[in-house]
Amino acid sequence: MSEMTDAEIRDLLRACPTFKYLKSIQAQNPGTKSTQQVLKTSKLVHNNKIIRPRCVFQYFIDPKNWKRRRKPKSWPRYLNWPRDILRGTRHPKYDERSYKAGKLKWSEDCQGKNCQDMGHRNAREPCDCVTPDWHSVNNTSWMNREIELWWKNPILGVSTISKRSHQSGEILGEYFGEIIPVQKKGTDCTYFFSLPLSQEDDQSLIGFVDAARVGSWTRFINHSCRPNTAFEFRRVGSTQRIVIVAEREIVAGEEILIDYGESYWESLKDEGKYCRCGKGCKYKEPKTNTQGRQM
């Protein structure tokens, strides 16, 4: 993960491609009911500005977002704050004293490509791997060959369609984006992925991965209460990576779906937003009785 200057971020945004998706529209020929497919550029409103998200296959940090953010009291002395946030997240059996001293043991093996030290789980220097086993999916060539972006409807927006079959357990990509600090309540969290300090406490947040401005195709995966993929953390060397894993076989032409999780839908309750996927929905709006009380 790189810490970038404002100029470097601007250069990155200019150099990286935007996302294109297909949309079916009514043909213009009078008297016909045929449709045609047109290519559109993805855009959204972010911080009251219309932006066009850029395709990247990395995590990065904008230093100005962290200037007034103090590191946690238990932050390990040997890690840089906030640059090493992916090294400091999700430690097992968290306790502040051991964490700060760097004495914790990892609970999972490294998933680095050709890792020579699969059994080494020392928290401080587990190994020097930086390239994951699934590195071949982290590029535009794989994305263009395997994934198609289609406009679904005004509520769900763009959907991700698999062009070929994928087996259960296969890693389809990573959830890349910008590492940002914990935000105030009411902030748009549509593209957030939480980074907890501890594996055992998802509420011990130290930041988020935000894919609003930049990210990979995985930022477009829609929610379903009956998903065919799942988010998982995988360790590569000394860092945690966020991957999307197929939970069952996905056939060609099928939409790739994922469960956004309870914390995501909890954050939207105050806005009166609930899941409407209609597939054994776990996060739907609660029913109320005649007195307006939840049943």
UniProtKB/TrEMBL annotation:
Q: Pfam families under this entry?
A: SET
What UniProt keywords apply to this chain's record, in alphabetical order?
A: Chromosome, Metal-binding, Methyltransferase, S-adenosyl-L-methionine, Transferase, Zinc
Q: Name one GO molecular function term.
A: methyltransferase activity
Task: Tell where it localizes.
Answer: Chromosome
Name the domain of life this protein comes from: Eukaryota
* Transmembrane annotation, as ranges: none
Q: Which InterPro entries match?
A: H3K9_Histone-Lys_N-MTase, SET_dom, SET_dom_sf
Q: Which residues form the SET domain?
A: 145-261
Q: Return the GO cellular component terms, semicolon-separated.
A: chromosome
GO BP field: methylation
What is the protein's name according to its record?
Answer: SET domain-containing protein
